[in-house]
Amino acid sequence: MKKILIIAAHPDDVELGMGGTVSKLSKNNDITLCILCKGNKPGKEYVENKRIKALHKNIKTLGIKKIYMNSFNDVSLDTVPHIELTSYLNEIINKVKPQIVFTNHENDVHIDHYTLSKAVKVSCRPRNNSTIEALYEFPIPGSTEWSFKNINYNTFIDISKHSKNKYKCIKRYKTEINNLPDPLNVNFIKYRDNYFGSISGNKKAEPFICIYKKDI
Predict the structure, then answer these.
(1) What pTM was estimated for this model as a whole?
(2) Are 196 and 206 in contact (CB under 8 A)?
(3) What is the per-residue pLDDT across 64-119, written as a single tens digit (0 to 9) for each?
(4) What domains appear along the chain, each with residue ranges and CATH number?
């Protein structure tokens, strides 16, 4: 059993980016989730409570053991001093002592995802006294793709038997789901999982970039 720490910017990032993977890994691992922003989208602050309620239901569905939540405002992580972000992350990492860490993708149009990725890389540097053996980044539909940067995924996790839990969780975020052709749509996300499955030899898969992985 591994200790896994997922560090995400927003309440719905994990379900959208790696919900199937979390459902799969929680069967045999101890998963902790750390969310930095409270979900109050600028101009739509009323969605905060709805997103948090959905998140707490999803934690049970996905098998996440523990959650840490900070209260930074959405779309504002770039205004937080870098040392404040890394200090908070260091505190969480020291408490959890994870072997594996997942976080948002750096090449992302959303400033919170980009900013968090930079801070996580600092806090997860592979030093001799670190417990971290591997660091992965996950993309968000309609956010990472819209950065229009080349992204070479090097890790694909089969979620064929765990996709139902993922879609169930995503549907709970009623304030975030849009109609096609917007990529934040459950049908599009299903097509997306099928696509990444097709290029990795699976029925359904989620893509990641492995930033580093120690030889074990």
Answers:
(1) 0.97
(2) yes
(3) 999 999 999 999 999 999 999 999 999 999 999 999 999 999 999 999 999 999 99
(4) 3-213 (3.40.50.10320)
